[in-house]
Amino acid sequence: MNMTQKLIASHLVSGSMQPGEEIAIVIDQTLTQDSTGTMAYLQFEAMGIGKVKTKRSVAYIDHNMLQAGFENADDHKYIATVTKKHGIWFSRPGNGICHQVHLERFSKPGQTLLGSDSHTPTCGGVGMLAIGAGGLDVAVAMGGGAYHVLMPKVCRVWLEGSLSPMVSAKDIILEVLRRLSVKGGVGRVMEYAGPGVETLSVPERATIANMGAELGATTSVFPSDEVTRQFFEAQGRPGDWSPLAPDADAQYDETVTIDLSSLVPLAACPHSPDNVSTVGSLAGTKVDQVCIGSCTNSSFADMMKVAEILKGHTVAENVSLVISPGSRQVLTMLAQNGALATMVAAGARILESACGPCIGMGQAPATDAVSLRTFNRNFCGRSGTASAKVYLVSPETAAVSAITGVVTDPQTLPVAPPTLRPPKFFVNDNMVAAPAQEGEQVEVVRGPNIKPFPAGAPMGEQIKGEVLIKVEDNITTDHIMPSTAALLPYRSNIPHLANYCLTPCDPDFPARAKQKGGGFIVGGANYGQGSSREHAALAPLYLGVKGVLAKSFARIHAANLINNGILPLVFENEADYDALSLGDALTVDNAREQVRAAVSGAPVVVSAPGGKKILTRLEISQRQADMLLAGGLLNATKEGVNKNA
Does the pTM of the predicted model rise above 0.85? Predict the structure, then answer.
């Protein structure tokens, strides 16, 4: 077996491990963050389960940190109390970014992790099967339910050689994205192997696994080897380490080979992580802002490289440099060894250990600005400034360019800082609150901004409505449900958020959907790429959207649509996309029968104007068909509980 097969086989509940077949796996750990967590916990509460059934579940506060009003603080208080009641550990504000902290303190090779954040695969850097999912899937897993996913293909990424000075792990994953695109990992697990893996530290592996989400991959997996063992030893958790490696005769569906010694510094250009060029080809481009941090590149090793490059220099007059260490552990170590003072002396502005600019929560660039960021996504407008040009780069490229004021190849520096692997990390878990021993005594506090989530209704015999909007390829969840500093505080308030659904594509969409009583969305290829946020399904549900017809879907978003009773229909003939227009009336007759038949591969027929019959694929299992008929996963779960009772 390869590593992916070993991890799945050891957690398999049902299904066949054949690519494309639905499998169910046991989940050992879950994580949530405050942007998606409120919905997940409201859904968990709705299931009526007293205590979580996982080995460990952790709630993090790291996204909605700017408290300009009461909304974010209220959400944090709700999460703090609901987790205390139901057996979930609570990482308090300031403790750090969920993926960085979980890697440091809770990751465990050989276990499964399900998180309500698309970058949960970060922990694949230590040999976990770590998967991002919608909050409802995470709620079910916390309640002891299995997680269902299509058995992925396994793509081996064979790494040879070693990185040249000033070339980093960020450049490795950018090279993978350059070759495969943002759709290249769909239906796949990226499994890293080869002699080059041994040269990479755990934080470097985590950077690569983190950005595997940008490939659309189910997850990414690295071996758990001697490098991993040393990392756990340094974290004071030697007992949590166990080895993981593929068998010598392991088979793979595909292989990509990368010679690390041939790589040069790379950058993802606006506005997609796969729009990759060499930094050298961009040299001389004036830079207005540099942001260093996020769950991708905020480790102690990354920060120390930045400090070493900045030492003795001053940030260019035309550049605003902000740095956000990924965790309190990292921040404390930087403060203790003087690196933090070096950054401040150079002119860097130090942000708290949180997601911050990566999710558009502060530090929006100036109009038409060029911003270099060590983050994982550069979708148009995600920074908070629609006209800004965001480039994704390594910490080395970011730090050097901050000094010169223009895009600069870091290999032009005479000396490269080393990658540090400290023998001992600073450990203090006092900002992680334990759940209550007697949770039933805890009162859950709900602020006025926390509204009930919309629930789907059982499917009728006929589904009909107009085309409410038609959008192009690669529509992201940032398009569907914008994530800005102004909107993030309303993640617990779907009625308010729905007023902004798909407004980056068409400002009139929410009003039109309400006026028409709902209807259909027509999308291009890779519809719903990006974040795991189920708000991108909940807001359309609130607006009465009954189905989405698209050329193809991103994995998590398609699952979120099904979870909420919305049909994700794939055009059999992509020419039918061109034939549809805004306002066209669509009907799915005998809907319940057609959904049942779709399990066996029968097309779902959608009637369009002029008597046209559009054939679509509804790629679902019997379990998902039952969910759609019931009006979503929560309804189906309640039905199952009632039947069992």
Answer: yes
